[in-house]
Every structure is written in structure tokens, then in C-alpha cells.
């Protein structure tokens, strides 16, 4: 019996909601590398060049399945198949997508037939029905949506459980006019010119709380919540804990509500480090951003060397003022120097 015949035969007796283990039993005989992510989600890893064909082949094997608009996800009988490129596995984006998937899954597992649940996210309580990835270069990585699919809250995700667990709070290119950012950039240029060298990382603590908040929560901090002014920064695995009156509270290894300035090793500092593909503020090789103070070792910026004044050349043609003048001999001649040898008698 061919693998596909076997799969179709098995799928006919599928339960009301397909489990991840069932998905694995259908997909693995096709020769794919498949991994369980949640109770109803699996990840299939394929070479990027084969991604589209692999999605289509798996979808054809699962009768009634649908493929997402971007051609990367298969939905089948309440379960999900994520098809990922092998070349991208293990990086920051994969970890971030894992956090988003975990958050979406935990919300939906708590619905219990209801259209939404009440969730405290940061300082607000919203109607949550799921979580979706935020596109574009903004502070939010994921947004919570209600039962109509409308975004109602925004979250920035960080990996790990300590200050060393994630890359940085955020870039500062858009904060060029801030006095502290401007002074830091001027210090880099004074020390290194327009080419930042390989080697140590340099930094300076941020003094202004508003600047700290802008790098942590987004460039629109102080305004309405949104993709560039997040409700919450969450580090680690997202978890829903029971709150009051049937609501839930979103937590992680560490969380910071909008306006909470990170401390205890998470304090934002301005950092510059070498990165061959960067050139922030016109400095080749410089990657400038806000980091947790203990996230990576850094040194204060070196002070530029002071130019030493040049000493004037000595004029040997004239005696120095105040120097003894040798005595004059007969007719104005200068007597021969004394050698200390007595003349022969």
C-alpha cells in the first residue's frame, strides 16, 4: 500500500479535533522531518527551495485542509502544520514564532467554547480570542485579537530568562535628536571617526527615564497603545494565570507593563558594537542600540587622544640668551680650546 493511500484511509476515522500525534503519524511516512510543538500543532522542516511544493504535497494528503495566504501554514481539522525552512532554524525569529504560537495556543485552550476570555495585559483588560504576528519593523511582535479579529493589545517578546537571554531593547536611529543619543554618537565619532573597529563593545548608561521608556516600549511611548507603543514587554514562555472574576493575567519569566522602567541588570544603556553589515549614524561597522546593562560586557567610550603641541626648532646659529659667551683672543679670534696637554719644553 502506498503511503498516501494509507494516510487517506487513516484520516477517514479522524476524531473531531486532530492531535499533533495524529498529524505526525500522517506526515512522517511521507519522509518529512516533523516535530510536535503543541497538542494540536506540528512543525515540518524542509529545504527553503522545496517549501512551496512540500506545503502543497502535505495539503493534498490531508483532505479538506486549507493553506494560509502566504503558503506557509496548513490548517486541518482544528490542527496546524507549520512548514519551516531548514536554513532558518534555531535563530531569533524561530524562537519568536514559538512564543507567538504558544501564546495563541494557550488563549484558545482557555476559551472552552466561549468567543473570548478576559485577559489583563499590562495595565489593561481586553477581550482575547487569539494572538497573531505583527508584520513590519515596529516594536510589537505580537498583537492580541478579539473574537472579530480586531487587534486589542500589543506585546514585545524577548527570549530567555535573564538579561543575557535576548539581543537588545531596541534601536535608536529614530532618536537621533535626543541629547543623550546625540552625545553618544559624537563620542563614538570623536574616538573612532567614521569607521568603528572590531573589538570591544562600548556603552554609556541612559539617564533620562523618558529615553529609557522610548527604547523599551516604542517610539510612540506616551500616546495610545499600539504597534509602536506596546502594552507589555514579555520575556520567556507566555503563560495565563487565573485572575479575579473569571479573568486571566498574562505573565512570563519577566514582564514590564507600559511605563515600568526595567532595573536590576535590565537597565537600558546605549551600546555600540561592531557589525559588518551595519552603519548606524553614518559610522561604518557600528551597530548602536539600547541594551540591558548586564546583557553583554561593555566599556566606557575611550577619550580621544589630545594633540601634543610641537616644540619649536632650535636655532643653532645664534647663542641662546643668557648663555656664556666664549672669550675673544687677539684680533678678535677665538682661542683654541684647551686640551689639557702640556706643551713640550
Task: Give the overall pLDDT as a whole number.
Answer: 84
Report how far apart the termini are.
Answer: 134 Å
Give the number of helices. Answer: 6
Number of strands: 19
Biggest sheet statistics: 5 strands, mixed
| Strand composition percent | 25-35%
Radius of gyration from the CA trace? 34 Å
Could you estimate the helical fraction of the residues in percent?
A: 10-25%
What is the 3D shape? Answer: globular
Q: Which class best fits the helix and strand makeup? A: alpha+beta
| Strands side by side in the biggest sheet | 1-2-5-4-3
Order of helices and strands: HHEEHEEEHEEEEEEHEHEEEEEEE
Unreliable spans are 1-15, 339-345
Tell me the number of structural domains: 2
In short:
Strands 1-2-5-4-3 form a five-stranded mixed sheet. Strands 8-9-10-13-16 form a five-stranded mixed sheet.
What topology emerges from the helices and strands here?
Blueprint: H1 3-11, H2 20-27, E1 33-38, E2 41-46, H3 51-61, E3 66-67, E4 73-76, E5 79-85, H4 92-109, E6 117-121, E7 124-128, E8 130-133, E9 142-145, E10 151-158, E11 170-171, H5 179-192, E12 202-205, H6 209-217, E13 232-235, E14 239-242, E15 248-251, E16 254-257, E17 268-274, E18 286-292, E19 299-300
Parallel strand pairs: 2-5, 6-15, 10-13, 12-19
Antiparallel strand pairs: 1-2, 3-4, 4-5, 6-7, 8-9, 9-10, 11-18, 12-17, 13-16, 14-15, 17-18
Amino acid at each position: 500500500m502506498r503511503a498516501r493511500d494509507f494516510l487517506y484511509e487513516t484520516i477517514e476515522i479522524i476524531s473531531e479535533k486532530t492531535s499533533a500525534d495524529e498529524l505526525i503519524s500522517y506526515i512522517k511516512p511521507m519522509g518529512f522531518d516533523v516535530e510536535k510543538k503543541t497538542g494540536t500543532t506540528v512543525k515540518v522542516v524542509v529545504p527553503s527551495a522545496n517549501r512551496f511544493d512540500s506545503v502543497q504535497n502535505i495539503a493534498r494528503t490531508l483532505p479538506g485542509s486549507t493553506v494560509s495566504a502566504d503558503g506557509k501554514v496548513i490548517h486541518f481539522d482544528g490542527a496546524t502544520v507549520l512548514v519551516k525552512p531548514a536554513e532558518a532554524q534555531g535563530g531569533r525569529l524561530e524562537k519568536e514564532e514559538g512564543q507567538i504560537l504558544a501564546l495563541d495556543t494557550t488563549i484558545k485552550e482557555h476559551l472552552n467554547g466561549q468567543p473570548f476570555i478576559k485577559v489583563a495585559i499590562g495595565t489593561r483588560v481586553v477581550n482575547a480570542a487569539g494572538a497573531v504576528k505583527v508584520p513590519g519593523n515596529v516594536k510589537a511582535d505580537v498583537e492580541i485579537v478579539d473574537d472579530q479579529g480586531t487587534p486589542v493589545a500589543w506585546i514585545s517578546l524577548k527570549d530567555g530568562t535573564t538579561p543575557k537571554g535576548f539581543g537588545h531593547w531596541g534601536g535608536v536611529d529614530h532618536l537621533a535628536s535626543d541629547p543623550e543619543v546625540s552625545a553618544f554618537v559624537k563620542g563614538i565619532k570623536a574616538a573612532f571617526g567614521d569607521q568603528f573597529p572590531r573589538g570591544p563593545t562600548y556603552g554609556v548608561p541612559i539617564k533620562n527615564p523618558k529615553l529609557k521608556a522610548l527604547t523599551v516600549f516604542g517610539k510612540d511611548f506616551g500616546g495610545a497603545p499600539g504597534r509602536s507603543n506596546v502594552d507589555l514587554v514579555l520575556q520567556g514562555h507566555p503563560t495565563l494565570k487565573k485572575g479575579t472574576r473569571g479573568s486571566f493575567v498574562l505573565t512570563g519569566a519577566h514582564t514590564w507593563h507600559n511605563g515600568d522602567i526595567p532595573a536590576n541588570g535590565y537597565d537600558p544603556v546605549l551600546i555600540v558594537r561592531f557589525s559588518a553589515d551595519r552603519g548606524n549614524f553614518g559610522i561604518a561597522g557600528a551597530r548602536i542600540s539600547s541594551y540591558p546593562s548586564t546583557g553583554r560586557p561593555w566599556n566606557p567610550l575611550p577619550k580621544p587622544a589630545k594633540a601634543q603641541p610641537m616644540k619649536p626648532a632650535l636655532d643653532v646659529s645664534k647663542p641662546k640668551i643668557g648663555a656664556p659667551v666664549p672669550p675673544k683672543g687677539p684680533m678678535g679670534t677665538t682661542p683654541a680650546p684647551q686640551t689639557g696637554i702640556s706643551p713640550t719644553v
